[in-house]
Structures are given as C-alpha cells and as structure tokens.
Amino acid sequence: MKHCLMISGGPLDLSFAKEFIKDRHYDLIVAVDAGFAACLELGIHPDLLVGDFDTFGREKIQDYLDDPAFQIDIHQPEKDETDTELAFRDILKAGCTSVDALGALGGRIDHEISNIHLLVHEKKRGLSVNYFDARNKIFVLDAEIEKEHRFRKEEIYGKYVSFLPITEKVKGITLKGFKYPLDNKDISILENPSLCVSNEVEAEQADMSFEDGILICIESRD
C-alpha cells in the first residue's frame, strides 16, 4: 500500500503543515499548483508537480520544466477538470491507495465543495483521501465499500465526530460508544441533515455502521 502526501494550492497554515508532516512518512509527495510554493517554504521536495499553475505563475514554472529533479504534469488553464482532480488521477497512476491532503480546504467555497465531492469520486476509484487542516479531518464512508468504521478515542483528530449525508438518504446508521448513540436510524439531506453533527467518542473506542448511502465524516477540534 503506497501512501501519498498532497499539498494543494489553497490556504495553508505553514506552521500547522510543518508540525503535521514532522513524524509522517510518505511514498509519494505531490504539489498541486500553488502547493509547490508551500513546499518550497516548508523545505519539501515534491516528487510530482501537477496543475495549470495559473496561481503559482505559468512563467515561474517554466524555470523548473527542464530541471530533472522535478517531474511536472502541466495543463492548460482551459480544461474540464480541477487541478485537484488531475492530481488524484496521477496519484492513482503512481499506485497509491491513500492520500493525506493539505490545502484542500478554505479559500474559494466552490473549490472546497468540489474537493469534498471528489472524496466520493476517488473513493469509488480505490483511492482513500483524508483532507486535513488545523481543526478538521474530513473523509467519506461509502456503504458499498465499508459498512463499518471504528473510532479509537486516542487516535481521533479532535473531540467531535460528525456524520453528514452526501447521498440524499443514508440508511440504518448505528452508533455505539458515542455520547449520542443511534440504533438503525436513517438520515436525509431533505429531512434531518444535521442529526449526526458534533457527536463525541465516550468509550475507548466507538463503532459506527450503516446499511446504505455515503457519509462525509468530520473529526474536528475547537
């Protein structure tokens, strides 16, 4: 299993990023557009640069095109995919199955929502993606792939765990070991979308299961 670090071009707290990567090891490091500038600030040498580089600067990226130390997948700004989607495509081609992504949250809300939708798209293609910022870890749970997930109190990213439906309905949610347990409960975007917001793990470990649908899971801290 190959594990990837992706640094995107969105807003990134460099002090947080430096602390985050300090004790982590990756098989592949990918910089997406202006994420390359963040890598340079952090002293990270990415294995691959991806994007149209309209934010980093198309003239500036020319300085690196002939540098054998960098592999660059450059695209025209006029394209159907976002830079993030193109990066995920390259990450899959490189044989990675999981990604920790920094800089994918915050900034323009259209890009942020698109990135969250991409979590579902990539999960179905076999790529497990976790977005991180200083306060949140975001990933998806898809009942077609995994109907159960365990949360260990000492390992979760923050105090709170929330489950939000991304399909119109998510069926049969059961929560055990949480402050607010559930037993075979359905939630819907149209009826009770905030029912599973701000739960907490009370036991040493907590288990969730569900029968159908796709959930966004957010582990967060104040």
Detailed description of the structure:
With 222 residues, this protein is of the alpha/beta class. It has helices at residues 14-21, 35-42, 58-61, 83-93, 109-124, and strands at 2-7, 28-32, 48-51, 71-74, 96-102, 128-132, 136-142, 148-152, 160-165, 169-176, 182-188, 199-200, 205-209, 214-220. The strands form two sheets. A ten-stranded mixed sheet has the order 4-3-2-1-5-6-7-14-9-12, with helices on both faces. The two termini are 33 Å apart.
Q: Main attributes?
A:
222 residues; alpha/beta; 10-stranded mixed sheet; elongated; Rossmann fold; 21% helix; 4-stranded antiparallel sheet
In short:
By secondary structure, the chain is α/β, with parallel strands linked by helices. The protein has helices at 14-21, 35-42, 58-61, 83-93, 109-124; strands at residues 2-7, 28-32, 48-51, 71-74, 96-102, 128-132, 136-142, 148-152, 160-165, 169-176, 182-188, 199-200, 205-209, 214-220.
Fold topology:
Blueprint: E1 2-7, H1 14-21, E2 28-32, H2 35-42, E3 48-51, H3 58-61, E4 71-74, H4 83-93, E5 96-102, H5 109-124, E6 128-132, E7 136-142, E8 148-152, E9 160-165, E10 169-176, E11 182-188, E12 199-200, E13 205-209, E14 214-220
Parallel strand pairs: 1-2, 1-5, 2-3, 3-4, 5-6
Antiparallel strand pairs: 6-7, 7-14, 8-13, 9-12, 9-14, 10-11, 10-13
- Give the N-terminus to C-terminus distance in angstroms: 33 Å
State the fourth-level CATH superfamily of the largest domain: Thiamin pyrophosphokinase, catalytic domain
The global form is elongated
Main-sheet strand order equals: 4-3-2-1-5-6-7-14-9-12
By CATH reckoning, the class of the largest domain would read Alpha Beta
Bin the strand percentage. 35-45%
**pLDDT < 50 stretches:** none
Number of strands: 14
For the biggest sheet, the summary is:
10 strands, mixed
Q: Return the string of H and E elements.
A: EHEHEHEHEHEEEEEEEEE
Classify the helix fraction into a percent range: 10-25%
Overall structural domain count: 2
What structural category do the secondary elements indicate? alpha/beta
**Mean pLDDT level:** 94
**Radius of gyration in whole Å, from Cα?**
18 Å
Number of helices: 5
CATH architecture descriptor name of the largest domain: 3-Layer(aba) Sandwich
CATH topology of the largest domain: Rossmann fold
